[in-house]
Fold each of these.
Amino acid sequence: MINKSIISLTLLCSLFVSAAIQAEPKPIDHVTVIVNDGVILEGEIQAIIDEVKSTALLNNQSLPSDRALRAQAVDRLILNSIQMQMAERMGIQVSDAHLDSVLQNIAQSQNISVEQMRQEIVKSGESYERYREKLREEVALNEVRRGNVHRRVNISLQEVTTLIGLMDENSSKEEYQIGHILVSVPSKAAQSEVDAKKDIADKVISLLKDGSDFKKVAIASSSGAKALEGGDWGYMGINEMPSLFSESVRGKKTGDLIGPLRSGAGFHIVKILDIRGRQTVEVKEVLARHILITPSIILSEEKAKNMLNKFLAQVEDGSADFGKLAKQHSEDPGSALKNGELGWANPDIYAPKFKEVLASLKIGEYSKPFRTQFGWHVVQLMEERTADATEKSKQDQAYQILYKRKFAEETENWLREIRDQAFIEVIAE
């Protein structure tokens, strides 16, 4: 009997001890930093530190001290918190549909499907849901920065021109293969004779424009030194040409005819037979028009899409005109005033999904409603053409170089300013 009591008491004590151990309070996440109206939790800081350490381990990369790493993590979270609070005040909301569109674009840029990308993310050990939410925040942060920093970036035409000049100096020198025909004029010719020679030069130009062979015409009618060579002067740089030609030839493309140009010797006709040392940029341009409907708190994603389906049905049955619908309903103010027309443009300037849809259309065809980060669209491909965009490409390249440089500089200045203006209190380390 005594032994049974002792055993029962021992078991009872063991249960109390076990219950006490299980009842011990577990450490909970706590506020580490207050930022204006928001807070940063210790768990958020540790999550960034763990992520950086994990990436460094995979890449066999060394890291600074834990203290320095923590300081960087706190600094990033403070700036993100300030910007996300600004996003809320600005009314920036990244919907699931918008996020799906961004994910689709990322997957396409990697030549994989969204499902394959999801599998890769999970395989790396990260939660796909966490990845989506991080991306949602990143999209919102980009919108905040673009909205606040873009207006601080100013680029003058002189800056663009100067940079193009520097780029040209550092690039390979262009050489032009010149074809030349001279309709000579005697040094003391009367005006009537000059006029007659001018008429001959104009007729030569007409023949060449109608497809006559330049070299044959040169051999037959040129008074120039290279007439027997078909007027071919060979390759030469701009600075090697007679000054009469250099300014007229600059920027021209292969096959262009120039003239007649008047000099003391007579009337000159020049053809660009070939160009070497130039990176010619030819682009496919499209002329399109669209209707944009932007979802809001009042207008759901589904309703926005259904509106566009209704418009398409009206256009197809002839009860409505696409241009008039765009003018009345499209929320793209720049194109709505022009019946939805976007003007001739390189498709690369459009959002990836917009560009993809345009590429799938035949001339005159309308798309089905599709989503980009700007909202729901229907688009019609009106025309296509190929354009020489060499000079424009230089301008765009120079502008983009200057914009990226200045945007990065202004972003740093802006981030420093908003941090200086924020209320920040460190509660615990």
Note: The first strand starts at residue 31 and ends at 35.
Amino acid sequence: MPGQSNAPVDQLYALIANEEDARVCKDIPEEACREVPRNFFLILAANVLTKLGDLLISPKTVLAWMMSAVGAPALVAWLVPIRESGSMVPQMVIAAWVRRKAVRKWFWTLGSFGQSVSVVGMAASVWFLEGYAAGLGIVAGLVVFSLARGFCSVAMKDVQGKCIPKTRRGRLSGLATTIGGSLTVAMTALLFWDRGDPTLGFYSLLLLLAAALWIIAGVLFASVEEFPGETGGGSNAMTEAVQSLSLLREDAPFRHFVVTRALLLCSALASPYFVVLAQKQSDVGWMLGVFLLASSLASSVSASFWGWAADTSSRRVIIRGAAMACAVCLLVGFSALIFGPDVGGAWFYPAAFFVLSIAHAGVRLGRKTYLVDMAGGNKRTDYTAVSNTVIGVLLLVTGGITAALSLISDIAVIIVLGLMGFTGMVSALRLKEVTED
């Protein structure tokens, strides 16, 4: 019941918050402060479940394998762009709609249910269709999945900003990533330990399991005690969406953040090229499992550290993550250029991928915390929507440029992305501090 004390939950939250009181609330109303411990763990559990679901339908692994298995390998190239940009580009319109509601947790719950339905549709396409019909069914399901994810992205930052104190948001994200990463380590071991090529039925069952995880996450998130907040209304969603773009012109700190975030796309875009170089060096089946394990371990060992650090200064977390990302990209790129792609033996690229994954976790968590902390009320929703929409478009553009450049040289792509990351780090140095009061 709202306002009712739950001693075990409060004590566990006090331990995580590292405070005697555990009720130091910043930037949220007093009534919401009373519900912080319970809301903290509900949001944490929902995040963990969705992170595990993301592993089970990863476009880079599971869905890509399925495309080849059903006979539609040419459609693999569309998976990652749709997965990332499909949830970002329409967010200004989504945010204009969400902003009209005083309670916004239901958008996240419906978005989670929508992702579940879309994943069931993908599984149905695999079972009942063949060839490019099955492939197009998977792509269509991924489009719906990404749109539903857009509602979750907008609503999550706003609900978290209303329900979790300013200096506890980073550790919430960090714990979710750490626990989710630990579970993905276990899942990776189950997938690749002493197993041949999994059957199509095995992967289809993974999709159904992922769908169940999103249903449970949606139910948990619906239990969050969210108090009514500010609303915006008036014009239609498209008009409001176009008007919100004026933030890029009128709000200099926000514009600077978006530019910095765009430059730091390097940490996400470089990862596949590490895998490509490793495959050229040693094309063995267990190597994919090593990369998945490296990614999961990186999240597990680094996310809580980044989360706690972001509660002190999310700006410094962005800077440190950017420095690591550009350093490892330039090291790998120039080493491969000078000594050849076979440099360093079989473990060179997985080790570099591990470091890059740690850096990406820092950049991602730091910029998420920074965005939530730099705005309040409806501005938080607008900032999230505008930045995600712009980044979604830029991701498609940058992805297209790097894809064209990769036709010339994969090594050149890594070096260019490393230089892009260095520029992003310099830009991050000029960000205003927002975490500390």
Note: The mean pLDDT is 79.
